[in-house]
Amino acid sequence: MDLTLLYRGPLASCDYDCPYCPFAKRRDSTEQLRADRAALERFTGWARSSTGDRLSVLFTPWGEGLTRSWYRRALVELSHEPHIDRVAIQTNLSCRTEWLAEADRDKVALWCTYHPRQTPYERFLGKTRRLAATGVRFSVGVVGLPEHLEEARRLRGELPEEVYLWVNAAEGHTYTDEEAATWTALDPLFPFSRHPHRSAGRACRTGATVVSVDGDGTVRRCHFVRDELGNLYDGSFRTALAPRVCPLAVCDCHIGYVHLETLPLYDVFAGGVLERIPTAQARLGMPLSPRARR
């Protein structure tokens, strides 16, 4: 089968403490880090051995994964597997990036978030330039708070033109039309983030071709629906995979609503769904084709 897996293990520690972050962070103990490493290595082993499937993997840790050697190693190893089409991770890019030279740069990708006041601007920009020079696919984004606007504008002006700058609507923040237009000038796709999407009863790829996996191997349709489909390691999840509609009233997170079949985002992000890289046409704000508007 063709299957996309969103993996989130027990790791919850982060080297940043952003006040707007919705994730509850902790300082992981040595024991907790060992447990996370063991869980990730088990998952990586399963993915590498599942040669009868075509897999894509996105790591979505609660904390920052790339400061841990086992996440860097997982991306490198999975990128070289012939049956794995893409392996990506969400990251604040605080880690070193030289290790990416060992990965298959046609398969590995980074979804990077810039957090003003958590890291010097020039340091972050320098890392994006080094990434661009290596040919690694990546996107860069910010949370759309008023205090981030000037640095977001500066970032858009100094990033390579081909690097997509996305803007996430801040959780709990309501945007006037004027404010939304300001952010849309930086990210033409911001309107998709501005409001939660009605999802109840609407077809979604999660639970059929996209699933969420936790550190114990429990498989759910996505990070936001808690019903279990089975377990990854005993194969019990496979019989539960089927087209289904969303049971939630709304979906307000990109890693969820990107999979809604009622939105055109698989066309918008064709070839870059996991790393949040849109097509050149969409990145420039050009109108979608009639097929893409369905």
UniProtKB/TrEMBL annotation:
Q: Which InterPro entries match?
A: Aldolase_TIM, Radical_SAM_STM4011-like, rSAM_sf
Gene3D superfamilies in alphabetical order = Aldolase class I
Q: What is this protein called?
A: STM4011 family radical SAM protein
Its lineage reads:
Bacteria, Bacillati, Actinomycetota, Actinomycetes, Kitasatosporales
